Amino acid sequence: MEANALQNNLDSDDDFSDPEGYVDNVTDEELLGDLLIKKPKEADGIDSVIVVDNIPNVGSDRLEKLQNVIRKIFSKFGKIVTEYYPEENGKTKGYIFIEYSSPSHAMEAVKTANGYKLDKQHTFIVNLFSDFDKYENVPDEWEPPQIKPFQDLGNLRHWLQDADCRDQYSVIYDGGEKTAIYLNTPQDPVVIEERVRWTETYVRWSPRGTYLVTFHQKGIALWGSEKFRQIMRFSHTGVQLIDFSPCERYVITFSPLPDHKDDPQAIIIWDIRTGQKKRGFHCESASAWPIFKWSPDGNYFARLSPDTLSVYETPSFGLLEKKSIKIQGIKEFTWSPSDNYIGYYVPEDQNVPARVVLIEIPTRKELRVKNLFSVADCKMHWQQQGDFLCVKVDRYAKRKEDKGEVKYAGMYHNFELFRMRERQIPVDSVECKETVVAFAWEPVGSKFAFIHGESPRISVSFYNIKPNGKVEFMKMLEKRQCNSIFWSPMGQFVVLAGLRSMNGVMEFVDTSDITMMTSAEHFMASDVEWDPTGRYVVSGVSWWVHKVDNGYWIWTFQGRLLSKHATDRFCQLLWRPRPPTLVSAEQIKEIKKNMKKYSAQFELKDRMSQSKASKELVERRKKLYDDFMKYRATVKEVFINQKEERLDLREGIDTDEIESHIENFEEEVIEFLEKVEEIILE
Q1: pLDDT score of 152
Q2: β partners of residue 193
Q3: 398 strand-pairing partners
Q4: CA 335 distance to own-chain centroid
Q5: Rg (CA), the chain
Q6: 371 falls in which pLDDT band (50, 70, 90)?
Q7: Sheet strands side by side (includes 551-556)
Q8: pLDDT for 330-367, tens place per residue?
Q9: % of the chain surpassing 70 pLDDT
Q10: Average pLDDT estimate for 157-163
Q11: Which of 86, 121, 206, 622 is placed for a possible disulfide with 93 were both Cys, Cβ 3.0 to 4.6 Å?
Q12: Which of 123-137, 221-235, 258-272 tops mean pLDDT?
């Protein structure tokens, strides 16, 4: 029956054609979009082809050798499908065509191999084959590029203009739901900006404090100016980690999501000003973040891979001199914070000693090599001004291999101290027989401290490097409860903290004479942060670490507790960094010399700010002063506008000019007899 019904429907006279006058407005792209994407394009094959010029002219007897060399150089950029060597009179013409399996491979080959020096006579010039078409059709008349309209982002450094030099800090609380920016004031901090779900994980400040970074599932956003408006956003799904170049020109983002081998997306470098993606890289793991480390001027960045140190340059983002530095066994490297120097460490290999090497970039010149014996591991610590480098060397008395696992016995430690500013970079050594827990340089100065020993006999030792090169032992503080060292950004003062498992013991030390200023405790403290000026210290109990007693306390640099802020599910506090000061070293020295002259006015201001009554009086006086200055400016403007009228009334004589010069006045003394008194004596 169903078959008969179907046949009856087919035999019916229904007309399925379009009515007369019907216009079909459905495009092929809408109807067959998924198929049209796969439609072959004329340039598909061309975009995967590169042209390599300046190839050696060789005959058939040497052609096979040349082909092997070319394949070795260009196969590392991707799979080669075909290669063609044009010949003339039995010799190659000096250029070749190479086709890759993907256009992205061809682009990588052009970017990296262009300018590659094969030998003294042959330097490759590499172009995409499709570029020849573009260069042939260059118009005769040049058209200037369209100028983008100016976008006013506001004053990105407005917080530096605060009259009282107060710093800002960010706080994440309520379990990450809320983020606030505070202004640190002598009384209670003032909320500048507060938003709900501003970030999905955490926030970060840029190195100079210009931008605040928030993290989201689809990427990151940069905020700045007075009202923290969105400056730029970068799309990178699943982003977890970021890193800035020191100059704040570039930002690196990392996402653990799998990427395609032809389109690296794990690590992306972005231009902050334009928002453009500059380059992408593959990354299997970010366990040792940052993967890329920047030079202090932001012109170079480097990456470590097995037996290789790759240094890239900006703004091309290509390898420096088109090739990496081959270093057998390299394990760790760091940049100097002030100069374009790289220090790297190579562990010992059988009878070959371990070594620490300092090289200069971009010349790759070796500045200093230090061989080390009986080494289990090394860690490098630069002083913030780049004057010194400390290499903490873990040494052993005996070494034993058991089932492929290396075991050490009789461990002790050495600090190899490189004096970077002196000729030939001399090296001093300090030995410590006990376990070293932490090491830290004084940021501005020549002192360093390290925690050594095991509980309950933990000690802190302080050393100073004299100008003559002598390493002076200053003092040892014994039986301390600490596992972290926090130097003031301005030097001299240091906080010794026993965080987390040590119940938050904090000791404030003046290292000018190793004096204990204060000993205090913030129970279960998980974090300690100095403000960028070295005036205040914050200790906090993060909800990410402990679920109770969350909040933060603010201390002076001397250890006096200023305020306690119990904050519901407090997570993170970060001070807003400041850019390097524009004041010269000589000016700073002069200010310190005349500090007593300035201290009186600052002390008066501090005393007035401490009482509410004084604060109200100051604000009232300031309002009266501002009102008077506003009135004065108005009257002055009226006075200036009436000048023509005054000249007309005074027959062209400019009395304003006359009265402004004292030499135009003549002094005339007139005496009057006002009263005469007579006294008659009898």
Answers
A1: 83
A2: 181
A3: 409
A4: 14
A5: 37
A6: very high
A7: 527-530, 536-541, 551-556, 561-566
A8: 999 999 999 999 999 999 988 889 999 999 999 999 99
A9: 90
A10: 90
A11: 86
A12: 221-235
Q: Is 529 helix (H, G, I), strand (E, B) or coil?
A: strand
d(CA 1, CA 349): 88
Q: Read off the pLDDT of residues 462-488 as tens digits, 9 standing for 90 and up.
A: 999 998 778 999 999 999 999 999 999
CB 558 within 8 A of CB 517: yes
Backbone angles phi, psi at 635, to 5 degrees: -65, -40
Q: Are 397 and 374 in contact (CB under 8 A)?
A: yes
Closest CA to 392 of 418, 357, 368, 416: 416
Helix axes 612-641, 595-610, angle to 10 degrees: 110
Contacts of 286 (CB under 8 A, 6+ apart): 240, 241, 254, 256
**Would you tell me how many other CB atoms lie within 10 Å of the CB of residue 558?**
12
Q: Distance (Å, rounded) from C-alpha 574 to C-alpha 211?
A: 13
- The one-letter code for the residue type at 612 is K
* Alpha-carbon gap, residue 610 to 372, rounded angstroms: 57
What is d(CA 563, CA 75) in angstroms, rounded to the nearest whole number?
64
Q: Three-class SS of residue 131?
A: helix
Shortest CA distance to 575 belongs to which of 233, 189, 186, 156? 189
pLDDT of residue 113: 85
**Residue 545 zone, left/alpha/beta (φ > 0; ψ -120 to 50; rest):** alpha
Per-residue DSSP letter, 282: -
Q: Where are the beta strands (DSSP E) in 434-544?
A: 436-441, 447-454, 457-465, 471-477, 484-487, 493-498, 505-510, 515-521, 527-530, 536-541
Q: How many other CB atoms are there within 10 angstroms of residue 567's CB atom? A: 20
Give the closest residue to 184 by CA, choosing from 447, 452, 514, 529: 529
- Entry pTM: 0.73
Closest alpha carbon to 394 in 442, 433, 342, 447: 433
Can you say how many angstroms the Cα of residue 208 is from the centroid of all Cα atoms in its chain? 7
Q: Checking DSSP bridges between strand 354-360 and strand 341-346, what pairing results, if any? A: antiparallel
Distances (CA, A) of 670 to 513, 667, 673: 73, 10, 10
Tally Cβ neighbours within 10 Å of residue 323: 13
Q: Are 581 and 208 in contact (CB under 8 A)?
A: no
Please, which pLDDT band fits residue 2 given cuts at 50, 70 and 90? very low
Closest among 357, 302, 364, 360 to 328, alpha carbons compared: 357
Judged against a pLDDT cut of 90, whether residue 491 lies above it is answered with yes
3 state DSSP class of 157: coil
* Cβ atoms of residues 445 and 491 within 8 Å: yes
Contacts of 301 (CB under 8 A, 6+ apart): 245, 292, 293, 294, 295, 311, 312, 314
Q: What single letter denotes the amino acid at residue 676?
A: V
Instruction: Give the DSSP per-residue string, 22-80.
Output: ------HHHHHHHHHTTS--TTTTGGGEEEEES----BHHHHHHHHHHHHHHHGGGS-E
Contact 199, 214 (CB under 8 A): yes
| Residue among 483, 441, 430 at smallest CA distance from 458 | 483
Tell me the angle at which helices 103-113 and 60-74 cross, rounded to the nearest 10 degrees.
100
